[in-house]
Specification:
With 226 residues, this protein is of the alpha/beta class. Helix content is 46%, strand content 14%. The protein folds into two domains: 152 residues, Response regulator (Rossmann fold, 3-Layer(aba) Sandwich); 56 residues, Orthogonal Bundle (Arc Repressor Mutant, subunit A), CATH 1.10.10.
């Protein structure tokens, strides 16, 4: 019988914590056997990033941390990055109202396991927890990506983009994904403005795309900038 996924949840609003407990269908089960059959066990709760780290020191059996992107003190992303360093076996799901493409891209490029918007609903969060526990990554479709409404495919942690772009083209592509202008990329990489434009044209040609949003989508799905 599969064991329950042990979860630590964190948010600086008590009402949100209560909502997360409800979403994950967790109640105080007195019967140990029944508890072991539950798909999830919330074994810890915290109200800050600092609290999450303290709880992880006390709870070595945590499988997945679900935490809000915005919290007082350490943000959810800052907390997630510390978890990566100090508790590499723990998966992290950022759960937030924020639906910005820029933030989603930022979270992805920092190699966080999952980002779920609160607008995606309960089932999406449950799915994300299950999938990150299996070693997948879960991210929403970018709003400004190509018009396709196809959900994100699972991105396996072990997966890498095939060798399509040169090293320099990859560097330029990742700078574009981060929102830098052509001049800013030229300055950052110490190359000429026109050289950046040539690289941009080659990137779009090789990937058969014609918009920045499509490049962002490719980078997210193929883990190009990690």
């Amino acid at each position: 019988m599969a064991q329950s996924i042990k979860i630590l949840i964190a948010d600086d609003h008590e009402i949100v914590l209560d909502g997360l407990k409800s979403i994950l269908n967790i109640t105080h089960i007195q019967d140990t056997a029944a508890l072991e059959r539950a798909p999830f066990q919330i074994i810890g709760v915290a109200e800050s990033g600092e609290g999450v780290l303290a709880r992880l020191e006390q709870l070595p059996t945590v499988d997945v941390v679900v935490l809000d992107y915005y919290m007082g003190g350490m943000s959810g992303l800052e907390t997630a990055l510390v978890i990566q360093q100090r508790f590499p076996g723990v998966k992290v799901v950022l759960f937030s109202m924020e639906e910005s493409d820029i933030i989603i891209t930022k979270v992805f490029t920092h190699n966080i396991d999952a980002y779920v918007t609160k607008g995606e609903g309960r089932q999406r969060l449950v799915e994300a927890i299950n999938r990150v526990h299996k070693g997948e990554r879960v991210f929403p479709m970018l709003k400004n990506a190509a018009s396709s409404k196809t959900p994100w495919r699972p991105v396996l942690t072990a997966g890498k983009a095939p060798t399509v772009l040169s090293k320099r083209e990859t560097e330029v592509a990742c700078q574009i994904v981060q929102g830098l202008t052509t001049q800013e990329i030229a300055d950052e990489l110490s190359i000429a403005f026109n050289t950046v434009e040539v690289h941009r044209a080659n990137i779009y040609r090789k990937l058969d795309i014609n918009r920045v949003a499509e490049l962002v989508r490719y980078a997210l799905e193929m883990k190009l900038c990690e």
